[in-house]
Amino acid sequence: MRKEVVLITGANGEIGHGLISHFAENEKTHILALDVMPLDDDLRSKCERFIQGDILDQMLLGRLVAEYEIRTIYHLASILSTKAEYNPETAHRVNVEGTLNLLRLAVEQATWQGKPVKFLYPSSIAVYGLPDIATKNASGKIKEEIWCQPTTMYGCNKLYCEQLGRYYTKYYRQLAADKNPIGIDFRAIRFPGLISAVTTPTGGTSDYCPEMLHHAAMGKEYRCFVRPDTQLPFMVMPDAIKALLELEKADQSNLSNLVYNVTSFNPSAQEFYDIVIKAFPNADITFEPDIARQGIVDTWPADVDDSAATTDWGWRPDFDQERAFNEYLLPAVKERYL
Ligand code: AKB
Fold first, then answer.
1. How many angstroms separate the CA atoms of 208 and 226, rounded?
2. How far is the CA of 257 from the centre of ligand 1 (A)?
3. What ligand 1 atom has the least distance to the C-alpha of 191?
4. Which atom of ligand 1 is nearest to the CA of 125?
5. Cβ of 41: how many Cβ atoms within 10 Å?
6. C-alpha 74 chain-centroid distance
7. Residues 6+ apart with CB under 8 A from 169
């Protein structure tokens, strides 16, 4: 008998940390964790098994199919927006070919199991591409179907993988004579910038908020790479984990979309700075905008409309801006660094 597991790729990343900790504390879930980097020691004991390996390694993925019954996949592995711009072709391989490998694995598992495998995919506000700052300021809350003209490789990859998810769910091998109706159940969330109190992001362009907070708490100087008036939607990590878990549990018949926006609050960089400086009055933070990275952030929406998620699966964040800082971020970073 193959062991029933939940597969988490990119397990050592920020969302992986939150997800594995949640499963370990709240649910009897056997986790098969995969990452190209070693998994942090405190997470290893929470997993059934950790494999250090690459999602581009098809032999490795083939062995997983043979050994485990994978009921749900949280495919978190990806190269984020800033890092992707330094090597777009490598990013494409990891973000697109890697996802394709996992989708294929999911279909194979579904065929063995005789029922669809759930595939949870973190997409991003990077799929949006607003043409200029005037349009961004005038657009308000962006719905899922508009301004999907990304300007980054990462954004292109995420948007395309959403489409691959749709294809594998609804149209895979649609002309085959032996067409197998059992496929995958793809569900994606377009995350805003994420802020965790226990990990710091690497390689993203929304990283200025979490970086500002963690540098201030550590007593390290921080040069913020965007203008003070820059505005993006954000969410704290516990709400990101909650969103993934709630979408996973949602009744399929209630889901009118395969892809959903979620958000919580959307401070300007100046507002974020004001809160951080109040909590850490000696923090050494200055604004030194990097024109290229600023250009990317300026194409992302100032806010998103997450009403479809609210209607279809009852989405509501636990943390608004005030609660996020007062009850999660500030107490946790102070305990961690001070
Ligand atoms: C990034 O900045 O690349 C990510 C994202 C917005 O998806 N945090």
1. 8
2. 22
3. 7
4. 6
5. 7
6. 10
7. 183, 184, 185, 186, 258
DSSP string, 262-287: ---B--BHHHHHHHHHHHSTT--EEE
Of all helices (H) and strands (E), which one includes residue 52?
A: strand 49-52
Best mutation site among 14, 124, 196, 296 for ligand 1 pocket (most ligand atoms within 8 Å of CB)? 124
Q: Residues 177-223: pLDDT tens digits?
A: 776 667 899 999 999 999 999 999 889 999 999 999 999 999 999 99
Q: Where do the structural domains in the chain lie, given as residue ranges?
A: 78-194+235-265+301-319
Which pLDDT does position 196 carry in this prediction?
97
- Tokens 């962006």, residue? 142
Ligand 1 interacting residues, C-beta cut-off 6 A: 80-81, 124-126, 154, 191, 193, 204-206
Pocket probe mutation, ligand 1, options 153, 191, 195, 211, max atoms within 8 Å of Cβ: 191
**94: DSSP letter:** I
pLDDT of 156 above 70? yes
**79, 94, 121, 154: residue to mutate for ligand 1 pocket, most atoms within 8 A of CB:** 154
CATH number listed for the domain at residues 78-194+235-265+301-319:
3.40.50.720
